[in-house]
Amino acid sequence: MVLAQLPRFHLSIFAKSHFSLASSHFINPNPPVKLARTLFSLPPRSNLATVEPTPASSDLEDAPVEISLDRLFIPPETDISGEDPSRLAARILKGSNIVLSRYARDAQVVQADYVKSSVRTEDCPADGLPEFALVGRSNVGKSSLLNSLVKRKRLALTSKKPGKTQCINHFRINDNWYLVDLPGYGYATAPHELKKDWNKFTKDYFLNRSTLVSVFLLVDASIPPKQIDLDYASWLGQNQVPMTMVFTKCDKRKKKKNGGKRPEENIKEFQDLIQGFFETTPPWIMTSSVTNQGRDEILLHMAQLRNYWLKH
Ligand code: GDP
């Protein structure tokens, strides 16, 4: 494994990326997380629990952050060994641990159409196009993210119509791949209800859908990790279902409202808790449907996964 051969040290990156759709932005999943509010102008915080005024999100989005090499997601056929740190920095998607590969192209969405709603895996479209499934707890921001990805205000409403909330909803993008909206989970509080959600609508799809390139597990970064999300991530990891973690609501930064934690802290805690479920660190990315943070980056990541999948 490329990762195993890499020395364990931290990169600290300030420069913007050379990629048109991405700029460098690092977050260190290992404590202490260090962030500076503006480039070079403030010393990094040594303790995120320190009470500080909430900076504007644009400042934070530009902040230099650190990440350890062994926590990067390095796509297949991508070798970063021996790469100069500043060049490597330019290859990492902003607000994520994702290294870009040569497969990252054709990311733009020009067309998006609702295709169908299915209640069984075998009823899903059979044209063999690659797909990405969005899943997350009810209210995590899945519809907002879907609409933001396709730049359509109401497309995801289709899957919120009566009778479709518990379906596998397919949206065809650019006539050559699918975004799939899966039922939200965790709405009911009784354990047997949760189990019903999980078993009936998603397990079979995850295990048997041969064109599924990756699950995108949405996790609310404005609140501390929830057990049900950890269970979900654990199940996917243990069943070796490819997964990308999408942290939503990263614009919600007010400490008091969020139980005293910033999104970066919640994200780090979540990652620490799921680390044992995976052989290598899964890709993760910070998003906000309010500021569109992460939108272009998710599309580039989907593009590189998709183009690699199509070649193999
Ligand atoms: P779903 O149930 O997962 O489809 O969630 P929705 O997309 O319907 O969003 C649930 C609630 O969270 C709504 O009130 C949204 O306005 C809000 N929301 C969704 N995404 C974001 C986000 O990125 N930032 C903030 N602040 N609120 C969001």
Automatic annotation (TrEMBL):
GO MF term (any one): metal ion binding
Keyword Nucleotide-binding: yes
Domain EngB-type G intervals: 128-308
SUPFAM superfamilies membership: P-loop containing nucleoside triphosphate hydrolases
Keywords: Cell cycle, Cell division, GTP-binding, Magnesium, Metal-binding, Nucleotide-binding, Septation
Database matches in InterPro entries: G_ENGB_dom, GTP-bd, GTP-bd_ribosome_bio_YsxC, P-loop_NTPase
Pfam families cross-referenced by the UniProt entry: MMR_HSR1
Residue stretches in coiled coil: none
Cofactor: Mg(2+)
Gene3D superfamilies in UniProt: P-loop containing nucleotide triphosphate hydrolases
BP-aspect Gene Ontology terms: cell division
UniProt entry tagged with the keyword Metal-binding: yes
Superkingdom per UniProt: Eukaryota
PANTHER family, sorted: ENGB-TYPE G DOMAIN-CONTAINING PROTEIN, MSS1/TRME-RELATED GTP-BINDING PROTEIN
Family assignment from sequence similarity: Belongs to the TRAFAC class TrmE-Era-EngA-EngB-Septin-like GTPase superfamily. EngB GTPase family.
Cross-referenced NCBIfam families: GTPase_YsxC
The name this protein goes by in its record: GTP-binding protein At2g22870-like
Organism listed in the record: Raphanus sativus
